[in-house]
Amino acid sequence: MSDGTHLTVEDAADPAARAAVLDGLIAFNTARTGPGTFDAQPLLVVLRDAGGAPIGGLVGRNRAGWLYVELLHIPESQRGRGLGRRILERAEAEARARGLAGVWLETYAFQAPGFYARMGYTTVGTLPGCPPGQACHFLAKRLDGAPLEAP
């Protein structure tokens, strides 16, 4: 490039490079949507063992006026006891308290799309072949009970 800029491909996570991309994107988005829309307040609902050690739970964050559930895991030894439902309900209650419109997440076909459907989530997109031979499903749920609208 004539001004001296150049591209590199890197395997290591460079915090300065990530910050440059994230900060630039947030500034661009905020200029179009207003202050605070892309503030990323974390939310964790942690499942702990009898000794207090974390063994599972939910990790999410506010994202564009919705709660994005990044991770949800229940150890196999703890499944079938309603813990996934209770954890997700706690996260939804906190999202309501934060004034968020809804919750969205992604799950693989071999994970829990049926669980989320039973919890009132709607599939809003599917990426076939991710991972190979499977599919990644994107699901969402409005917290006011209104149906999801097509864009």
What features would you describe in this structure?
Residues 5-145 form the N-acetyltransferase domain. It comes from Roseomonas populi. It holds the Pfam family Acetyltransf_1. This is GNAT family N-acetyltransferase. The chain is built from 3 helices and 6 strands. It is α+β, with helices and mostly antiparallel strands. The protein has a domain at 38-142: 3-Layer(aba) Sandwich (Aminopeptidase). Strands 1-2-3-4-6-5 form a 6-stranded mixed β-sheet. A hairpin with a 2-residue loop joins β2 (54-63) and β3 (66-73). The N and C termini lie far apart (38 Å).
Question: Per the principal axes of the C-alpha atoms, what is the gross shape?
Answer: globular
Q: Could you give the order of the helices and strands? A: HEEEHEHEE
The CATH superfamily of the domain at 38-142 bears the name: Gcn5-related N-acetyltransferase (GNAT)
The top level CATH class name of the domain at 38-142:
Alpha Beta
Number of separate helices:
3
Q: Architecture of the domain at 38-142, according to CATH?
A: 3-Layer(aba) Sandwich
Largest sheet: 6 strands, mixed
For the termini, the CA-CA separation is 38 Å
Helix content: 25-40%
